[in-house]
């Protein structure tokens, strides 16, 4: 039994904590979670086809990214092929991608920190969760060889890569370090005050400017009494 488990995955203790190395694909052992994901994808495709035939819009999954980012992403988002490309291409937000597996102990250990990061800095960063058993194409494209593997991206460019577990403060420091890359919010236009400080209130229908006592129009001389 132990030999069989060793053929599936290997745990190594290093400076960054416990790292799990995947061997499942090497031996061609299918993942139960992956089979469930395939079945779910097939059901979603059938539902989308039925909705299209009825003239209704297809239902978006919980992990789908909204077209406009009108609300904060205050919780991690399960990633798939579609919303991964949508989020990582954005310029108005940093994207922290967590490559993990349900059976990975170190992955479960850092999960609360990433959830806290999304809740605290949802205006700056979106946390995407990539299950390497369910989304093998995404994991292969990123060159995942061990988990946990966390990447920080902006506009499709990788800024940081963290192998193994880290405390919350470390992930937060990376977000704050690269937050300057995000566009600044547009400043509200300055408004001019209705009246100058100390000026008398305007009369209804217009304004009256008091004149000096001896003021005369240009070219007019005072008469002598």
- CATH superfamily assignment of the domain at 2-30 and 61-181? Glutaredoxin
Fraction in helix:
25-40%
What portion of residues belong to β-strands? 15-25%
Q: What is the CATH class of the domain at 2-30 and 61-181?
A: Alpha Beta
Report the principal-axis shape: rod-shaped
The description of the largest β-sheet is:
5 strands, mixed
Helix-strand category:
alpha/beta
Q: Could you say what the CATH architecture of the domain at 2-30 and 61-181 is?
A: 3-Layer(aba) Sandwich
What do we call the CATH topology of the domain at 2-30 and 61-181?
Glutaredoxin
The order of strands across the largest sheet is 3-5-4-7-8
* Low-pLDDT residue intervals, each spanning 5 or more residues: 1-5, 24-35, 51-71
Q: How many strand segments?
A: 8
Q: What is the terminal separation in angstroms?
A: 125 Å
The ordered string of helix (H) and strand (E) elements is HEEHHEHEHEHEEEH
Give an account of the 3D structure.
The protein has 225 residues and is α/β, with parallel strands linked by helices. The chain has a domain at 2-30 and 61-181: 3-Layer(aba) Sandwich (Glutaredoxin). It is built from seven helices and eight strands; from the N terminus they run αββααβαβαβαβββα. The strands form two sheets. A five-stranded mixed β-sheet has the order 3-5-4-7-8, with helices on both faces. It has a three-stranded antiparallel β-sheet with strand order 1-2-6. The longest helix is centred in the first third of the chain and has 22 residues, at 32-53. The chain is rod-shaped.
């Amino acid at each position: 039994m132990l030999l069989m488990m060793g053929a599936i995955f290997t745990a190594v203790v290093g400076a960054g904590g416990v790292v799990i190395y995947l061997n499942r694909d090497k031996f061609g052992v299918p993942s139960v979670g992956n089979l469930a994901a395939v079945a779910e994808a097939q059901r979603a495709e059938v539902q989308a086809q039925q909705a299209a035939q009825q003239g209704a819009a297809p239902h978006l999954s919980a992990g789908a990214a909204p077209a406009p980012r009108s609300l904060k992403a205050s919780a991690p988002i399960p990633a798939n092929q579609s919303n991964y490309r949508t989020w990582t291409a954005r310029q108005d937000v940093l994207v922290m991608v967590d490559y993990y597996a349900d059976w990975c102990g170190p992955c479960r250990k850092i999960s609360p920190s990433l959830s806290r990061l999304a809740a605290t800095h949802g205006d700056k960063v979106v946390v995407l969760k990539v299950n390497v058993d369910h989304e093998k194409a995404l994991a292969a494209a990123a060159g995942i060889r061990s988990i946990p593997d966390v990447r920080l991206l902006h506009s499709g460019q990788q800024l940081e890569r963290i192998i193994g577990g880290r405390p919350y403060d470390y992930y937060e420091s990376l977000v704050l370090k690269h937050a300057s890359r995000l566009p600044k919010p547009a400043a509200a236009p300055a408004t001019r005050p209705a009246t100058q400080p100390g000026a008398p209130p305007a009369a209804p229908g217009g304004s009256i400017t008091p004149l000096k006592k001896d003021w005369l129009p240009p070219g007019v001389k005072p008469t002598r009494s």
